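Input (non-specific serine/threonine protein kinase):
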Amino acid sequence: MSTAAALFVAVVVVLASPLLASSQQQTPAMMTSPPPPPSPAATNNSRLESAYVALQALKRAITDDPKNLTHSWCGPDVCNYFGVYCAAAPDDACARTVAGVDLNHGDLAGTLPEEIGLLADLAVFHLNSNRFSGSLPNSLGNLHRLHEIDVSNNHLSGSFPSQLLCLPDLKYVDLRFNNLCGEVPEAIFEKKIDALFINNNNFDFKLPASFTNSTASVIVLANLPRLGGCLPSSIGDMAGTLNELILLNSGISSCIPPEIGKLDKLKVLDLSFNSLAGELPGEIGHMTALEQLNVAYNGLAGEIPESICELPHLKNFTYSHNFFCGEPHRCLEVPRVDDSQNCIAGRPDQRSAEECIGFLHRPPVRCDAHGCIAPPSPPPPVHYAPPPPLRIGSGMQVD
Ligand SMILES: *[C@@H]1O[C@H](CO)[C@@H](O)[C@H](O)[C@H]1NC(C)=O
Ligand SMILES: *[C@@H]1O[C@H](CO)[C@@H](O)[C@H](O)[C@H]1NC(C)=O
Ligand SMILES: *[C@@H]1O[C@H](CO)[C@@H](O)[C@H](O)[C@H]1NC(C)=O
Ligand SMILES: *[C@@H]1O[C@H](CO)[C@@H](O)[C@H](O)[C@H]1NC(C)=O
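Output:
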């Protein structure tokens, strides 16, 4: 991105931040003053004329506006519309243009018309927490300067907006909490984006091995239970950029490849509510930036490697609802730890002996099943002591 374009985006991001947006809401004193005169730029500027057509079409497509947000959306001076932010065009410092639309938390109902594609200089498009329905317009593919799109927490349906794939500057894609369905194109993982949130939709796709090509710092694919797939050993390829990986309830059935230990910038890793099998690789102990680790509700077994619990920044380690049979004492010193519902002798709130013994009689884990490539898991431990039955008030500390 050129310096001018970066500045354009920076200005718009600041303008569109929720804090500033709310401070721009009219105070009673402002409401009594006369409306500002139209800016001269609005009178002969084809960019603002197109924006006028786009925003009026959007206003017409809004069927309910309980907070009266679009009340000010009248006349050609679109830069004074509530939630609309103008800046000098990146390619013409003399021309003002609409660079941001921020209607977050607007509770607006309606649809998104194709005319939105007329906002040709739009860099920031924030519509989160509204009630927009229907599909995302194809014309989003015309927004060649789009940097951030956040349409999360709406009622949008239809397929993944593939029209976003050709936008060269797109960095932030937030589609979570909608009713989008169908395939997620693998190409989204090849795009140079910073953050991808697609959780809580009805997408139907298997995590492709190529997801590890992504250079995003945040990837959230949670609650896509039909996702399916593996954690590939190429996961270590994301070491340079990945800060946060949330694959909660994503239907993954594989072992955890030791290459995950290469992710030394990763702070948050959530693999809970999947069908992970085998043991926790000790290599996780190389993930020196890790602060939050959640592997709860899987089929993991064996001992918790001490190296994980020695990680210097680990604050919250959740491994409940697995079949772990041992944990070093060091693990209980992690500030937040949840080891409940495992098979750990001497610990409170574990699985019944029947469940733990039943688990041992399952066929051995094949990490390469389901088409996944991962190293074979070590054989189950030979000696196994079921946890003793807990007596109520047996000297357990209550805090
Ligand atoms: C509007 O701008 C166009 C192109 O920049 C120019 O040719 C035209 O004369 C201008 N019209 C007025 C009324 O200023
Ligand atoms: C919206 O604002 C206008 C003008 O302030 C007012 O007349 C109208 O009643 C408002 N509507 C709602 C639903 O608050
Ligand atoms: C993406 O990942 C796949 C599988 O890991 C690999 O074969 C392919 O070459 C990668 N593509 C790019 C563009 O790096
Ligand atoms: C610790 O992690 C668990 C699982 O991700 C989460 O539910 C819990 O809120 C976290 N606790 C703190 C204090 O961050």
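The longest helix spans residues 46-61.
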